[in-house]
């Protein structure tokens, strides 16, 4: 890192200038008072609408953070691309995609629908993510207990974050499980259509899904996970190869087409980079071969995306040509 610094060989050579621009956009978005904090469980409802954090980690480990970047929040749906990546790494794309599709659903993230093959549309919506959890839970190692599988997955996440300790919010987990009628309905609907791998225990599978949503992270940590994706699966901080490049390619492709709920098409059009948002207001953004960005602000727009997060991305693309096309 030091040698590169002397030679000015960083992917963003004028990093200080870049950070100044990020700062400017940050303050502009701070004034955005649109949106509502998720209220389906009390732990999310209590989150302050004023929280606003931006963290950046480049593929060569340059970092910048501003605002509420160390406050823990539950990862919620931002776990979906990561658990999908782990499943791809363990099982390969062919196996994973014999259970879940690659098509945007064009519907709500928790809609009770399957595609024409009677598979969930993609791993970024609830049905698909529940299926990915079933795969991790059964095919990857049926002999593992739920506890072992949780530790195993947690360890993967921590390696994606450069060996940082992540948390687990038990209150959120318990609440998720209490308010999960729709997720149970999705599970039963998929079981009715014989979507699951053999030996899948539905209740355990859903518990595992709620646990993955209840992992606690911070803006800083999630930006590092994003940078691991931006760097083809090698964490820029630990230099460990955590995911295979072919798994990362699949993950980014589906984040690009399906990561932003029913705004995914517009986001791909306007911003043009892979991203995934979650109901706690987190947004994982990947600029391939450049950096990972995490944006976190709890107020959500009508489609479920963080208002400040989306605005930040749109402003960023006005200033820098990160759009893939
Ligand atoms: O399954 C749920 O209802 C939530 N825990 C999922 C969270 C979320 O961010 C929605 N995303 N697709």
Plain-language structure description:
The structure is a single chain. Helix content is 46%, strand content 10%. It is an alpha+beta fold and 325 residues long. It has a domain at 72-219 and 240-271: Beta-lactamase (3-Layer(aba) Sandwich). Helix 7 packs parallel to helix 10 (202-213), helix 8 (170-178) packs across helix 10 (202-213) and helix 12 (245-258) crosses helix 13 (264-270). The chain is globular, with a radius of gyration of 19 Å. The two termini are 30 Å apart. Bound molecules: 6-diazenyl-5-OXO-L-norleucine. The site of 6-diazenyl-5-OXO-L-norleucine (DON) has 10 residues, from loops. 6-diazenyl-5-OXO-L-norleucine (DON) is lined by residues 76-77, 109-110, 126, 176, 183, 213, 278-279. Its EC number is 3.5.1.2. GO terms for molecular function: glutaminase activity.
CATH superfamily of the domain at 72-219 and 240-271: DD-peptidase/beta-lactamase superfamily
Question: Any idea of the CATH class of the domain at 72-219 and 240-271?
Answer: Alpha Beta
Unreliable parts: none
Sequence of strands across the biggest β-sheet: 2-1-8-7-6
Q: What order do the helices and strands come in, and which of them pair?
A:
Blueprint: H1 2-7, H2 15-30, H3 42-45, E1 53-58, E2 63-67, E3 73-74, H4 80-91, H5 93-96, H6 126-137, H7 146-160, E4 167-168, H8 170-178, H9 181-192, H10 202-213, E5 215-217, H11 219-230, H12 245-258, H13 264-270, E6 275-277, E7 282-287, E8 291-296, H14 307-319
Antiparallel strand pairs: 1-2, 1-8, 3-5, 4-5, 6-7, 7-8
The structure holds 6-diazenyl-5-OXO-L-norleucine.
């Amino acid at each position: 890192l030091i040698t590169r610094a002397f030679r000015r060989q960083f992917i963003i050579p004028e990093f200080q200038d870049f950070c100044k621009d990020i700062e400017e956009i940050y303050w502009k978005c701070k004034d955005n008072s649109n949106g509502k904090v998720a209220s389906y469980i009390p732990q999310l409802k209590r989150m302050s609408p004023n929280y606003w954090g931006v963290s950046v980690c480049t593929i060569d480990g340059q970092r910048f953070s501003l605002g509420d970047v160390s406050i823990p929040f539950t990862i919620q749906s931002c776990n979906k691309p990561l658990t999908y990546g782990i499943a791809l790494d363990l099982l390969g794309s062919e196996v994973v995609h014999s259970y879940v599709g690659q098509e945007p659903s064009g519907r709500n993230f928790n809609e009770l629908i399957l595609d024409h093959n009677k598979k969930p549309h993609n791993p970024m919506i609830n049905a698909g993510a529940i299926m990915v959890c079933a795969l991790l839970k059964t095919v990857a190692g049926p002999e593992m207990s739920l506890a072992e599988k949780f530790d195993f997955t947690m360890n993967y996440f921590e390696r994606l974050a450069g060996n940082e300790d992540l948390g687990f919010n038990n209150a959120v987990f318990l609440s998720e499980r209490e308010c999960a009628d729709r997720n149970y309905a999705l599970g039963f609907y998929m079981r009715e259509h014989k979507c699951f791998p053999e030996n899948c225990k539905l209740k355990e599978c859903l518990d595992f899904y709620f646990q993955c949503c209840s992992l606690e992270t911070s803006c800083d940590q999630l930006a590092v996970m994003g940078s691991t994706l931006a760097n083809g699966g090698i964490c820029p901080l630990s230099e460990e190869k955590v995911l295979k490049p072919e798994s990362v390619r699949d993950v980014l492709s589906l984040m690009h087409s399906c990561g932003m709920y029913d705004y995914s098409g517009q986001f791909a059009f306007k911003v043009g980079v892979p991203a995934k948002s979650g109901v706690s207001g987190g947004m994982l953004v990947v600029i391939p071969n450049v950096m990972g960005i995490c944006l976190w602000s709890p107020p959500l727009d009508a489609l479920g995306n963080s208002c400040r997060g989306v605005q930040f991305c749109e402003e960023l693309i006005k200033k820098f040509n990160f759009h893939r096309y």
